[in-house]
Amino acid sequence: MPSRLATSAVIATLLAAAAHAGDIGTDDVARLSEFVRQDCGSCHGLTLKGGLGSPLLPEDIAHYDKKTLTEVILYGVPTTAMPGWEGVIDKDEAEWIAEALKDGRIAE
Ligand code: HEC
């Protein structure tokens, strides 16, 4: 679907432009939360309770430590539809998402 691809490209460009080394500021938090709800939510459900992908609520991902979860987000889950997000978000952003998913900050 070309329109979806175009949207993804725009999002990737915006994210890349906004990405900067190191800290995650207030603007980043709003942007990343929206990104997780929309982009991750398209498969995992807008409230992250599952869809094509499994639920991502804290109890569902409790078995992952933050480092492993960050790697799942960056590199995807081989042999499944879960893509790697490396190139769309940087490592700091993936770490923030991992942490936010683990403490349930985004689904609220
Ligand atoms: C194209 C659909 C799709 C998108 C978009 C997507 N995922 Fe996934 N995700 C999957 C599938 C399919 C799996 C593997 C099967 C499963 O565990 O549900 C998966 C697995 C995962 C897992 C492992 C879950 C577990 O219990 O083992 C995590 C964590 C995860 N995704 C996080 C994310 C995050 C964060 C995003 C957004 C940056 C995202 N996903 C975007 C489809 C997607």
UniProtKB/TrEMBL annotation:
It comes from Stappia sediminis. The lineage of its organism: Bacteria, Pseudomonadati, Pseudomonadota, Alphaproteobacteria, Hyphomicrobiales. SUPFAM superfamilies: Cytochrome c. PROSITE patterns: CYTC. This is Cytochrome c. Keywords: Heme, Iron, Metal-binding, Signal. Residues 27-105 form the Cytochrome c domain. InterPro entries: Cyt_c-like_dom, Cyt_c-like_dom_sf. Residues 1-21 form the signal peptide. GO terms for molecular function: electron transfer activity; heme binding; metal ion binding.
